[in-house]
## 1
Amino acid sequence: MTKNILIAFPVACAIMIGMIGCNEPLAFDKKREISVVTREAGSGTRGAFVELTGILVKVDGKKTDNTTKEALTIDGTQAVMSNVGGNEYAIGYISLGSLNASVKAISVNGVTPSAATVKDATYPIARPFNIAVKDSVSPLSQDFINFILSDAGQKVVEENGYVSVVQGNTYEPTKLSGKIVIAGSSSVSPVMEKLKEAYLALNPNVEIEIQTNDSSAGMVAAKEGTCDIGMASRELKESEATDLRAIVIARDGIAIVVNNKNPLKNITMATLREVYMGAIRSWEAVVE
Amino acid sequence: MEGVFLIAALTSILSVFLICLFLFVNGIPGMAKIGVFNFLLGTEWAPTDTPASFGIFPMILGSLYVTAGAIIIGVSIGLFTAIFLAKFCPERIHRVLKPAVDILAGIPSVVYGFFGIVVMVPFVRTYFGGSGSSILTASVLLGIMILPTIIGVAESAIRAVPENYYEGALALGATHERGVFFAVLPAATSGIMAGVVLGIGRAIGETMAVILVAGNQARMPTGVLGGIRTLTANIVLEMGYAADLHREALIATGVVLFVFILMINLLFSLLKRRQAR
């Protein structure tokens, strides 16, 4: 009995290790099915993506998100990147500002995604970053907003890989003091942190608290007054826009990403749409 | 002093009551707005469309399929492990094996999920096809996760069977194996079943690990290599961004899950009572 166990244990170990070892990826096989990766319904990135690519079809006031039902649904930009980075046959989309070397961004209609191409509007998939405030804004919050929309604030936006939206406003520190609470989208908060740093350097008596959750929670908080400024990585919904005023602070491209082993370099908008709507199922039709 | 104990005891009851209240008060109106049958039996989940569809039947099936898969894997391995631990295992090996099983219970589910996404998903993708995020992957992973629950309860159920059952079997000329499988095991059935039910409860409520490996497609299941979204995954994935009726629908999804868990717990206490008798 004991002897059997002494044999069985190493064998089981060997099988386990074999399983891990056998995950060596093979060469890219064009005949394989595309693993389409999408974000969860309600995500700002998904909302912007389906709208800009025409996957969201509007007919007679009806809106249908035609993203293929076979798409893997993944929550969060980082999770999409790690999934695409680990699956040679995956395609996904993420905020351009979050892009890193773990995945490969491909051109759309021959245009490389970058801050420059988003700015001159040649890159077709770009969205606004919004902040939202109530009609009555405290002087301090208004001062921070003035800073964001000034050349100094917009420079911070550009330095972090996003695209500026306004030019020509100058900002003079007013030396106010007090506290600003900002809440909302996790896509917007990285750039908001940088704006906060730059603003505090000019106004050391101000305290800014940034709560990162998501677009909808940020809008609710702004509406209920639990925060001064809400952040959204999408346009405001009708129910939100009645109480809140949206201000565009930056633009962000949505990069189409594939695995680094994927030979694909460019995709046309039409092909991208067909991939995401499930009409094209295999890489053969996409990769030359 | 007694009052302190009473308050401590009431805290948990109060929590359960408050959770119940919160779920039903927030979930039922949403369910009524969508229509109970449209909600429970609808096969289309498209919360951001206009008009939106909120059918959670695919997710109900998803939870059931993945749990069934986990039970097939978890019970077959877990039961044999429990029998081995209780009746075959030399003391020396028991000293190593039992803590190993307990460690398995202590690993956070996100770590299981990470193991799943790094090791199991690519393995399934390479050798079985598809994207790798599938019912199969999720079932195997959940099967491993519920092992400690099943092993623990089943082992103590087997050990609780009076020794004279086994001795009687031997006296009638049965071998060790026969004695264990045909005299001891039937006597422990209801205890083992309780373990299985507890395992089902854990599998159906598991969230983090499943989200990472199941693919989360909100559509009817297409096969073991296709992905699936469970009830828990549906809530966690979309709660962050949901507003208005979408949010209510997610809370109503929680109500459905809660009812499932209640039924499982009820079943568990029934089995427990039968075992005690």
## 2
Amino acid sequence: MSSISEFYEKDRGEDYYNRLIEEIGGLNGKLNAFNAIGSISEGFPFSVKDNICVKGIETTASSKMLGSYVPPFNATVVERMLKKGFGFLGKTNMDEFGFGSFGLNCAKPARNPFNEKYVAGGSSSGAAVATSILKYHVAIAESTGGSISTPAAFCGVVGFTPTYGTISRYGLIDYANSLDKIGIMARSGDDAREVFDVVRGSDGNDATCTDPDYHDRNTGNIFVIDELTNGASEEVMREFSRLLDSLAGKGYRIERKSLKILEKAVASYYVIATAEASTNLAKYTGFKYGLKNDKFYQKYNDFFSDARENFGIEAKRRIAIGTFVRGASVKDRYYVKALKVRRLIINELAGILKDGFILNPVMPIKTPSIEEAESLDPLTSYKADMFTIPPNLCGFPHVSFTYAYPDGMPIGAQLTAGHFDDYALLGFLKEWESGFKYRFRYDIGAL
Amino acid sequence: MKIGLEVHVALQTNTKLFCRCRNDAAEVNTAICPTCMGFPGSKPVLNGSALSIALGIAKALNCKTREKVSFIRKVYFYPDLPKSYQITQLDEPMGYDGGVEYGKRKVGIRRVQLEEDPARIIREEEYTLIDFNRSGVPLVEIVTEPEIVDPEDLRSFLFELESILYYLGIDIEKELKIDLNISLGRNRVEVKNVTGIRNLVDAARHEMERQKALLDSGKDVVAETRSYNEGKGVTEESREKESDEEYGYIYDPDLTEYSLTGVEFAKPLMAGKIAHDYAERYGANEDTLRELLMFNRDALRLLEHAKDRRSMKSIINAISLLRKYNGMEMDEDSFDQMAMLLEKGGYVGEETVKKLLSGGSIDINVEEVKVEDLDREILELINKNEGLIEEYEKNPKTFNFIVGEMMKKHKLNPRYIAERLGKLLEERRK
């Protein structure tokens, strides 16, 4: 039974939501999971990543550029959740505009609930923390290059990133539109499935959103790709081998493969992502919404430049890279080539995924401490996404789930399926969870 | 001398290009939404009817079309551009490689693309306001080859283009915004945002003279963007334009590719060509036919109906009368009666037109009056009224009196009577 059904069956008492909000408030000071907390009074609680618009609630994507911005409309996902009776709990913390793997690129980074000295992962940091501390809750999160898998793995929750285009992006503050996918974090595959059924489906406000024929292919084959394990730390590989043994024990056929072109995935991803991001971020010029520049005596260009000083360093870096790679004189060498590489990788991976799942460690490293993560240079930090990027680059659905707790910290694996095989992944989770119990340090709102 | 144009045609769709805001709001900033205001989280969704109209324009301009069209982002920073990029087309436009023929001339059409209009900037002395009603209005940009040779050629080309657009149902009353690329020598100067054919021809003439003066004095023409000052009648330097390098075009990933297979579009109608063909076939004056047909759907409708039933002369006559008496909406059968009456030399006045328009029928049996009889009656009238001729010499309106008197006696076309009268007076003078 999903915890959603369980929640509605239990007697919650009158004061439930007040106590819930109070307890979250107390812990939030320490963990920074929420950027804003709503006034929930009914329904199963759901949180929304702060780059997804909720009408009347401050929505900033953790950026100073959108400081105090209150959207005049609900994102389609939010609209559908509310209509189904879910209760809006709050906006969750994230890396500014989704730019980051550790949740550190924002004013108050979220902290790992298993150990506050450690990162929560990014960019959907707050969504993962909220899911990890709340007994009855689901998180609407979003992934561009691994922003659901990574924080879900670090915080020990289920992260489900569906096939690109299955959940409407209307109301999502764009990072890279051809890569952005709204997804779900939950404490079980069943919860994720229930929410997916509520929010998916075509939408007149998003031209890329479709109603596909879903298949449910689980062939019993699991492929482990060299390029998606090479470079992982010894410790990560030791744990991952145990997972493979365990799955083999359950009857899965594990097969190793190599796919050289995946070495180009990170480069292709960052070119496309920054090219699109640099155009998406062009709209923040300090005079229509969010941060306001009041120096109206300035010339336009000076006015815009002045306002745009307020982007964080990582946002500026991606604007600079993205603007460069789409410039007319180099576009063919970067942007256009990256699109071609993406097409090749999609074709290659689709060929493999029709015969089985792909399994890999979510990250090549164990959850780093905040101090460690802060010391990484940008390139090393980008490379940390090398295992989560391929399915994200290609729009393949994937789940991230916990399979062990070495030294008391969760460690996660990512399972990828073919386009529209979303339910096969959710089915796998149900099977996995029948033999593995997730652990949580907090159970706020337990009944 | 070479002139090329970028013609921007605003489409009168019900809603804007990428959102469901009305496309005709009068009061400023009332037809706006998160999408056309560029709010975070908003997404564009293509208006299919704009796609269809734009395809009609591309086909009418004899463009080639690809199977699919796609949209790109053109990035530049300006207050009228809410997303700081314009959604337009690049490699896969609505049409390319077309051409317009007018008379013996032909100008190539490089491309026809569908794009969104930026907002309207209202400049005041101390401040600038922005009306976002215009933001997101569908525009078709028609880019010509630089094959227009002089200001007169420019006028003829635009007349033809506007007629084609008129017959596609485009409201050409809303003046077209046109950028002019003009070069006499090596370097090309762009004159931005000129509205109206007259201004455009003037701007071309002034820019041509400016460039000629520069070249004659041994100076170089700077490649730049200028604007036309209607009041002063000169072109002036204007804002710096971004280069293609800076626009940094990428596909708009919020929009998919759109297949043109099965997209319906209006069949074009070339009034200029029809006027030319009919002038030859029916021996009519081409200029007169053009004057009647280039911007008049009803005139064309009535002419097409009557062309092989009545003489072209009487048809042209009848259409002119309908224009004069605001009766262009007349049905074909009534028009036929009217043209028949004129053909027989009968009289058609405002009364007749009104009667036909209100569904009545007219007597088309014209009284047969022999020329000799008519002439005799006119002379009798003149002789009966002493001093009429003297008075005519002083006041030509006397002429109308005679015609009027004759029309009391016969149901004849006043023009016919006047013709006879003129002839008689001339003979008399000799």
## 3
Amino acid sequence: MTPHSILPDTAPDFEPATTINTNSQALVLCPPAVSSHPDLLEKSLSIFDKSSTDVQMLDRLSLKVVTLPTSTYSSVLILADPSSNTASLELEPYVLQCIFNSMLPKATLRSQEETFARVNTLQFLVAGFMVEKDVNGSVVLVKPEFTGNASVPLKSRRKQRVDDSSELNSAMLESVPTATEAPVIRGVGFVLNDDDLEDDDDLIDEDTLLETGDLGTLIQPPQCRPDPGKRRRACKDCTCGLREELEGEDKVKREAADKALAAAKEKASAGVKLTVNDLAEVDFTVAGKASSCGSCYLGDAFRCAGCPYIGLPAFKPGEQVTIDIDDDQL
Amino acid sequence: MASSLLAGPPVLILYASESGTAADLAREVTHTLLRRRFNVKCIEANQLDPFTSLPIYKTIIFLASTTGQGEIPMNGKDFWRKFLVKRIPRDWLKDVEFTTFGCGDSTYLKYNAAARKVHSRFLQLGATQLVARGEGDEQHSEGIDGLFFPWLELLVRTLSEKYPLTDGLEPLPADHLLDPEHFLSLTGHRQIAYPVRDVMRDLHVQRPASRTFHVFRNERITAVSHWQDVRHITISIPGSSARWAPGDTVTLLPKNFPEDVEEFLDCQGFTDIADHPLGFVRSSHPAIESPLPGRLIQPLTLRTLLIHHLDINAIPRRAFFSMIANFTDNPTHKERILEFTNPEYLNELYDYTTRPRRSILEVLQEFSSVKIPINRLTDVIPAMRPRAFSVASSNTGHSPGPAAEGINLEILVAIVKYRTIIKKTRQGVCTRWLASLKEGDPISVVFQHGTLVPHSSTELYNKPAVMIAPGTGVAPMRALLWERIFNKGHYLKNTLIFGCRGKDTDFFFREEWAQLVRKDFLRLNTAFSRDQPAKRYVQHVILEQAGHLWERIFKQGAVVYVCGSSGNMPIAVREALVKVFQEKGEWEKEVAVAYLVHMEKEGRFRQETW
């Protein structure tokens, strides 16, 4: 264990994100056995600046007795387990994810254990780390700048097999939305497994969001007062009679139009060939009255309110019009 | 678009939509922002894992309809459950600006509850409100659009001021056609030979988890003299190859009729190429995913696409007119089409389309100069949507009446047919297709688990049941009743309060109920609204049966089910129950109301209305 492998990396390529704090915060993680070797712990910690270094026990993290803050540390060090030289450190996915979330983008995670990275590579990749090597060839884990799609979604983790690491790598390289500056992605600080959501106790009561929650501000409609000239709408299962009233209006219109069409049909069967121009000029409800718009043939989009052709399809100018009054039974 | 030309950071638009309205509005927001050169990503809420992906975006817009009991629609439920996790730190979204828009109906008890909850939760998690939230109301004189457009305008103005375009760059004009992200193209010049005789009847879209069965019977169960045609459709399930529980639904994807499709093909000049092979190209990283399903009908031709995937009888929305304005060179037509896109003329658009229920096909036949290019067809015509129907039969295989080998899946369908100012009768797309099904016709169904009924192993299920289910609402209750009776006999207590227009017109399953009542399996109380001068509904029956209901509900802990048409019925039922509690419990009204709320929280008041 050479000294420089446990020194915090203060090389200039390493900038903390501007939105959090400007001082480098470090995290030292201790395997359980370290607590029975306090002198070792003191020695390891002596090289750190105590005011900007947090120390946590891995087993307490694993038991969720403590939590880590999100997006805080620029370097993390896992101390060696003093109880055994050959022990390889196994880190649970939950703990790894906590550590990951507590790190700033571009922050590094190192271990004093040499066997560390070789055994756990897959787990690191799945948690979102990039695996790199430093100048001596020891393994350094780096939290990438954009954590978005670069980490494998939590849901699929369980289904991965150990020998599928090449698939994982390509998943990590999926493109991520570009941004003009390095965003700080706030993690939630915990990991959720598929069955964690089965229990409603893990969720807040959504009714409280309405009862006591802040509903923000609501946009006011431009004209709050109902315009007397505007058409009204009836509710789906209207019980007040408005629906019947509106349907009645439509029915009256339809009947008036049908009447006009019936008159036209009579004329047609009497041998008078009607072209569109004729129809446009004659109002059948009042003998001899001329139509004012001449747009009847264009279709409902162009017809006036009282048009006898309302509800009929458009017809082509000059076309001989066939008026079909009969309709299928309702 | 090159990154340096984009305004602002990426914007995320999420939607949770029941019938497609919120999804359509999300699409409009997306296109509006794309024209302003924003980098936009629009996805269905469930497609996003909030924990890993939400905070990447600094601007988030959420559009949601409300369904069921003030709930988030199905396609947002997974997202919502995660979003509600207690452990999420309250400052998680402190760098996020957001807003929401709700699609609602003010006749519903929990008006826009879903969107409000979403908005509240975003604030609770530390996000900042970008602009005021909006609430659309179906009952508004201009419908949901009436409040959507002012909100959209405010949103766009605020975002544009916050993230102005780089110098010299203008937003794209509103009628500028954005490049298609997904499009059709002809892949061959010769007519294909279809592998089946009837491309409507014998081809089915392969929806995920869909199963194909056959129609055993399609029977009208309302009196012929009655104005409404309600069908009892029986689908035979061979052996025991499918299982379902009461409260589950089946979704059915309707098809268009060949004659309508012929009219469309003719109208657009596609007849000569109607049966040529077609391909569908999808962009790999689109701003919005195509609304068409992952697997399209095979073989894919214009004809089969129009029969199975494009809702040519849907009522066009404003965005439809914006698009088709680009596809005509007739100045009169174009002018009128553009007027319909003008917010000033929203009531004219309503009078032309929504009020008379005019279809896209009819509009295109009227504006006959409009010719939609093939590669734009899927952008212009909305995708066909499946409709859900409650299962009306029990899985136990003991459906009364003659049955085919195996078990019967039954549904009740009220055929939608009515007149508006348009001469040609209006028909519901799905019910028209269902009405046409004949014995032996294949039909593709997708089962969907429902939450109306608790699992049969739970304590709740085994309590006495009080079923308030007028009209077609009785469908899921029939499934529940048969299951309870066949599995538990007289052990479980059942009360059914049924309402309809007349004893002799639409008293569904009359003989079945009579049988069950005779054998003491069921207590039945009825309300026939038109059989006497005074209107009589289920809420009147509730008041009359106060003693019995108090005994069951308060003393025995019964579960109350309310099923049927949404709107006034569930409200009136609740009011009647409150009156019963007041009377029998000698309670103040507040106490009675609180008891009902308590029942809801306990799961003893369960509602499914449509």
